[in-house]
Amino acid sequence: MSDPALATVFEPSEDGDDPELVQLLTPEGERREHADYSCDLDDEAIRGFYRDLVLTRRIDTEATALQRQGELGIWAACLGQEAAQVGSARAMLPQDFAFPTYREHGVAWCRGVDPLYLLGLFRGVDQGGWDPRETGFGLYTIVIGAQTLHATGYAMGLQRDGVVGSGDETKDAAVIAYFGDGATSQGDVNEAFIWASVFNAPVVFFCQNNQWAISEPIERQTRIPLYQRALGFGFPGVRVDGNDVLACYAVTQAALRRAREGSGPTFVEAYTYRMGAHTTSDDPTRYRLNDELDRWKAKDPIARVKAYLDTSKAADDDFFDGVARESDEIATHVRDGCLSMPDPSVLSIFDHVYAEQTPELAEQKEQYAAYLSSFEGAH
Predict the structure, then answer these.
(1) What secondary structure does DSSP assign to 91-107, as a single string?
(2) Residue 378: pLDDT above 90?
(3) Between helices 317-339 and 43-68, what is the axis angle to 10°?
(4) Which of 36, 94, 156, 227 is the most buried (most CB within 10 A)?
(5) Is the pLDDT of residue 2 over 90?
């Protein structure tokens, strides 16, 4: 179980007045001002955020149900982390590129990836069918923390391509790497920090601190708040309310702009909570208390945006009903599409190893095809 005495070292002030935590929208749905970050989006954009949050959660909920019914091998839910993902993803420009873990379903949605591609991966019928070049969203990474090195290398490539610090806002690009609090204990992540710092790479390290690395609490991962680690590597770190979509947008927008301008990396710690299980193979009741979950449910990222839209009269019942209908439609799309996915040909595994098939691989494919054909007609 998490140690309450140690946890107080890491938790921001509950009243929202912690100067180290960027918060622009309280859990009650009230707008706040911050000295360094602001969100000048109009109510139409905030309604768009609400739609993204609701649809992301519905995709996530439907996928979890499909796994429970035996249609997916496993699923990693993002329940409770929608604001961190949607806010950061909507801060990206088309030319930016994201390197995800295996849980960034909200980022995938915002980058235009059909959720069926995500389900195909977890169903085991493909290895991720979306085109990273078209979406600016890399394939899911299972190896914990490996994508931070990929992101840093890609960012250094952007420097060499001359699309960093040129002053052309339509051309300059940046990279964002997503990872969790547990990944910060991996060597790959710390190596990425070193390379990014030394080479001033245009990358934003976006850590969704959801408090639990499977069953390990955050105080078993670090003795100081995660965002403070950035100073040791020579670049700035900032902690943002990860359940506040406006703050996540504003902080990520500033960090990406800084990267595009050539000012180097930024570490963003989105302080949030994993309200579901680590994956559908996990039982969180074995290592965390119900009152902890209840406390975070009161900070639900969707509920606070709805509260703002309600109290400010920025949305009416027709809007909310429309989003609910769209939510039902996407659930049908996800379910029907998943159930109708064809099983792949066994030999297709040889077709996606290299961009162009090598003679050696072609020979292996031919030999395996002959092996499979030897079973034809067998009883």
Answers:
(1) T--TT-EEE--S--HHH
(2) no
(3) 30
(4) 227
(5) no
Residue among 58, 239, 274, 304 flagged as catalytic: 274
Residues 6+ positions from 192 with CB-CB distance below 8 Å: 145, 148, 149, 151, 152, 177, 203, 205
The whole-angstrom separation of Cα 374 and Cα 376 is 6
Tell me the C-alpha distance between 145 and 142, whole Å.
9
Per DSSP, the three-state class of 30 is coil
How far apart (Å, rounded) are the C-alpha atoms in residues 239 and 268? Answer: 6
Tally DSSP H helices, then E strands, for the chain.
14, 8
Its pTM stands at 0.93
Of the residues 105, 111, 258, 278, only one is catalytic, namely 278
Digit-coded pLDDT (tens) for 115-173: 999 999 999 998 888 999 999 999 999 999 999 999 999 999 999 999 999 999 999 99
Task: Give, in order, the Cα–Cα distances in Å from 320 to each of 94, 182, 250, 329.
Answer: 28, 36, 25, 14
Residue 118 has which token pair?
């995500």
Angle, nearest 10°, between helix axes 43-68 and 82-90?
Answer: 130
Residue by residue, DSSP assigns 141-155 as --STTHHHHHHHHHH
What one-letter code names the amino acid at 197?
Answer: S
Angle at 175 between CA 172 and CA 178, to 5 degrees: 160
Q: 105 catalytic, yes or no?
A: no
| CATH class label, 4-339 | alpha beta
287 is catalytic: yes
Residue 133 annotated among the catalytic residues of the structure: no
Q: Of 287, 288, 333, 368, which residue is the catalytic one? A: 287
